[in-house]
Predict the 3D structure of the following.
Amino acid sequence: MDSKIGKIMLKDEKQVDYKYKNKTRERFYSFIKKIKINYGCLNPECKWIGELPPCCLEFHHLHNKVKQISQMTCSSIDAICKEINKCTILCTTCHRLTTHNYLNSNNFKLCKVIKQDDHLIQYHDNKILLEIPIISVKTTTPRAIIRQKSENKSSVHVTKLVNTNIELTNKKALLNPPFLKLHWQVIAGTILGGSSLIKPKKGKHYYLSMRDKNAEWLEYKAKILSNFASLEPFTKEKTNRWHSLCFPVFDQFARLFYKEGKRHLDVESISNKLSTFGILIWYGDCGSYKDKKIIFNTRIWGKEGTEALSYYFTLCGWQTEIIENKIILDEESSYKLIRMLEPEMSGTGIEIG
Ligand SMILES: [Zn+2]
């Protein structure tokens, strides 16, 4: 079974979800507006008295223009800062008078925004004017607890986790989240464990919805999939929940795990792709260990689905029996599976036996 975690991005996942793109664009503009309003017109002799709305304030490049700020919705935060720092902000009147050489731009102040950790700091006359959390541009912040966990216990997939987070600071990655083999395993394991794929009535693509009694376990998975969501896990009606945004990437899972709107398994195609890490995620969702035997609760898959999954275990060479929508591995197979899963457990919080 393939347990390698790769970095390959699949071609068909490069498509952009336009709803999501608009949301990101909105965030970008609200962030740009904040900077404009806080500076106001930077022409010291501006005749306009009182506050101006952001629509009357414009960025004016004082040197080395590479790109217009308003066209940088897809650029990285570093690139946006770099470009903003070449500009001054002027009201529409002062801007027009400057471009037609009625005003001398020599004594206009430059903008100064600096990225520091997860904040953008806006300066004026070398004093901090405002701290803008980058969360308004970036969609998620890593959870402190999980971050600590991954620092304490280093393992293969936790290291990969850190890598996926680095990509988050790049806005291009947000519009077009990188899809790793690791993501495939977590999504497939989670769906096998009972989570659902849902297509909104007017939507084009599916989203993933997860629930779990164990908040920490849910956070662990949500952290791996954070590129695909705008919210962290939340609690509603006493249930811990998390859901992704709609992305084309989830449609391939719908084809694999659903048929005509109902759960359906194509065991052959799953067995080719599911790695030990995927099985571990599945176990984390609906598995238990009793009397030296591993038990998977497959109630959500019904009788037919349970039989199909039991067949999957047979393909792996393990002996099982089915009791009331539960698949129970015999002692020897359970022992073998635990030995296989062990190297993947570090950092996940899962312990078997
Ligand atoms: Zn002005």
